[in-house]
Amino acid sequence: xxxxxxxxxxxxxxxxxxxxxxxxxxxxxxxxxxxxxxxxxxxxxxxxxxxxxxxxxxxxxxxxxxxxxxxxxxxxxxxxxxxxxxxxxxxxxxxxxxxxxxxxxxxxxxxxxxxxxxxxxxxxxxxxxxxxxxxxxxxxxxxxxxxxxxxxxxxxxxxxxxxxxxxxxxxxxxxxxxxxxxxxxxxxxxxxxxxxxxxxxxxxxxxxxxxxxxxxxxxxxxxxxxxxxxxxxxxxxxxxxxxxxxxxxxxxxxxxxxxxxxxxxxxxxxxxxxxxxxxxxx
Length: 282
Prior knowledge:
alpha/beta; Rossmann fold; 8-stranded mixed beta sheet; 15% strand; globular
């Protein structure tokens, strides 16, 4: 891990943050005060989050963006159950890019306005308060911006209605990163996905999709199916995540196993299998 800087020296501090440009895991471990304050009971990212951050860093290194010639987009999709720390990772993704990519442009959306306003943005606000360079940014209900370059260095929050698809167009950043973050991606209309793809043609583009795989069709499902060769995809078992309510998951599992067992028993009684007639001659 890069040594912590003198925070009072702006130039040194900015150089320290920039040194993490290809190391998302190192960034997350360094810029939050793990083990203290409201993170007193947290040691750092979960195992699955660490794997995501490490893989992301390797993708960045492989492309080696030099500031002008565009590179292939980074595509990462995560499917999971509830309570695994997905919203925290969404916040880290946004803060990492905003901190290490000057003049970046991003768009964040979610399946519903409620998801965006009550979960995605508040989680980002919580982690923004914790980060060591919090004073660089201003966050409100519509966007997060770098204070000195608010028009060029920003990430906007947009609703995922089909009628709002134009808000996802024209996001081109030749010398930095254009990025999209879709939360609860199963509910984001395909039209939004298609328009967002147009913002991945310049610079160092990135696309992140998170959510529960609740639909067998649609673009989020395609990340794990017909387009899986383009996406780094992860399916996280909630039982393996350290933040989930294991007792509740166990209760759900027992309920569904019991229900399934009961159904099989009742069906077999009501619809007994007919035995084949003997082929032996009488």
